[in-house]
Automatic annotation (TrEMBL):
Residues 1-18 have a biased composition (Basic and acidic residues). GO terms for biological process: cyclic nucleotide biosynthetic process; intracellular signal transduction. This is Adenylate cyclase. One of its GO terms (molecular function) is adenylate cyclase activity. Residues 226-335 form the Guanylate cyclase domain. It comes from Arthrobacter globiformis (strain ATCC 8010 / DSM 20124 / JCM 1332 / NBRC 12137 / NCIMB 8907 / NRRL B-2979 / 168). Residues 1-26 are annotated as: Disordered. It holds the Pfam family Guanylate_cyc. It comes from the Bacteria. The lineage of its organism: Bacteria, Bacillati, Actinomycetota, Actinomycetes, Micrococcales.
Amino acid sequence: MNDEDQRGGLEAGTHEAGTDGAGALGTGHREVADAVVENPPTGTLSAERIAAKALEARLLGGERKLRRREVAGGVGLSLLSARKLWRALGFPNFGDDDVAFTERDQAALSTAVGMVRAGMLTEEAAISVTRAIGQMTDRMVVWQIEALVEDMVHEQGLTDAQARKRLVHELPALVDPLEEMLVYSWRRQLNAGVQRLAVRAEAGLQASEEGREGDEDDAPLPLARAVGFADLVSYTSLSRRMNEKTLAKLVQRFENKCAEIISVGGGRLVKTVGDEVLYIAETPAAGAEISLALAEAFTRDEILPEARVAMVWGRILSRLGDIYGPTVNLAARLTTLADPGTVLVDSMTAAALDQDERFVLIPQDVENVRGFGEIQPVTLARGRGKGLVLD
């Protein structure tokens, strides 16, 4: 395989903007850009292009002036190894002659390589961690941009196209506070993750043995968790009757409500896929409280339809920010069996909750569940207590 087959690159910012004079607007870029909007230039660059060039210089830490070989060589790394890290971050390819990188790109590459050279991470671990950063920040940036555009459309009376053009003028004032919030949140989430996935993991494993005594099928999986699914009823038919704006509001309302309830219950929202949310909790009781709160919240909601909810206590494998294993599959299967507004668990999860007066457990008829054979679903209902209290 020749060098051209090993191309890789690191790119951020605006693809269309060039590099000539990228930093010319300096710290006063917003005032200058606003003035340009009122007095459009007569040259080849539009007001948006000028603002985008200034924003790019700020975000990338300077002007693009390095080629990929110069960046890799500057940290004593082969182009192939550099390409692995760049692709893990999700950046597209560049050619040998493309002047596409800044000194900050080189510093970031040096940081990643330095962790491997210092023995802090293996190369495989470094690539995996880098991929996590790339995928999460990519999704986060898309979410933030769409939220800002939507807000400008709503608050300033702009069209979607006008808001997207205006964004390059509004965003510079938000860069520093958003960056501060990102770092703050990452530190908090890292601490919570360490507690959840390491410090309290042993207690969870012991609880799993007690709740699933005699079940050895999923024993090799490392973590014990309550795994739950919540699925909106009739979402497909509703979405067909809604316009894009109304559907977006429905999905956002669903995700926000789920995130709030799961967070208050001490769980973690793993992911949302359209009309369905996957979440986990550290104990069967916490998973049960979250599941009941979700079912009750959507039953009371005046806009959203009811939800089918299911929760299973068992072992899982956590990788790439997602979770895997038979416990996850069984929870998904039970969700399809649940009636709207109700919560189903399996018999083993019911056994783990049986002595808790906060819950009422009602056995149902045995069902033949694909991949699991005969399973007895158990309806989970509210017992004593108020359940989760949402501020």
